[in-house]
Fold each of these.
Amino acid sequence: WAPHSMVSLVTLFDVKEENSMLKAVKIGTTKDHICNEVIWAQNGNIFICSDTKNSNPVYQGKFYVYYVRTVITKEEVKTEGRKGKGKKKQPAKVKEKREYVIDSVDEIDEPKSDQLVWDPTSRFFTICKLPSSGVIRAAMVKNSYQFSIYNAKGDLLYSYENPKLQQFAWRPRPA
């Protein structure tokens, strides 16, 4: 159970042009979570809701992976053909309709983790617990810092823990 003020949901909107006017159209919402940050993958199809900024350590380390997919449906629109002898029927036109769907992919529990970083390809992300800039050397010896690498589906691929770990960064992908 969490106090109501801490539970939130994420609502996504798309901007569309209708009659030469821009209009915000609601795509959908996520489930209710204890969430205070949304981290998008660079490709814009996957996002993760997290509570890494939560001051209460009990709620830190929850990550909810979501995928936004496009569903395209085609409708046949009948056009009225010309009537009379010898006139050809007009072929039906196909109208394409695009809708977005938000799918919950996975929930990850990484207690006390405070950072999430997407790799440049948006295929992997890292959840980290690293020392903050104000941590003194004596405190770092007592604590063990870690990073875990996940694929975009939320499957754990690798985990590393070390008391001397100071930072983690993804290497840029060469062209």
Amino acid sequence: MLKVEHVTKKYGKLVANKDISFSVDAGQIAVLVGPNGAGKTTAMRMLCGLLKPTSGKGVVAGYDINRQSEKIKASIGYMSQKFALYEDLKVWENIRLYAGIYGVPEAEAKERTEALLEELGFKEERETFVKSLPLGWRQKLAFSVSIFHNPGIVFLDEPTGGVDPITRRQFWEMIYKASERGITIFVTTHYMDEAEYCDRVSIMVDGRIEAMDTP
């Protein structure tokens, strides 16, 4: 589902990622662990087609990260830590917006929106503006819309940063359910306990992958 070989990303003299190589099989939950500034987000943005590598090669969902970035974007799900939802839109409006972005037919999107609100326990929050939701609720909603179109792989950039331990655990239960549906999960975190939840762990230090194995 995902494979990168000897990928390097430079910004002038700054080397953000240094000769990284790894692979993730379909259906796995893979994690990139490291402190802030280790290079995790840069690596993820290259895999999502948002940045081009300075050197190296890779394939995501069958598409080349150097030449087919637009096809990658259309084939994956993505959740950013800092920006994942439109806070000035209501809960249901965010779901329908992302459904449209991901190309879900309108009739199907309408039906699945109601099913998702029921599943999340958000029926009473349907008309609530997202900015009024607690952070943990927002993160759950953001994850749900990132996989609304059933992508082959979803990228989650530090999705549980700043949420309480109970919400973190609930979020990971949602990740497990998505994995059971056949969605490959690639997540970055700086929580070591979260790494134990995954099938494959890569530890990043100063832009390099220093260790990679099962938990």
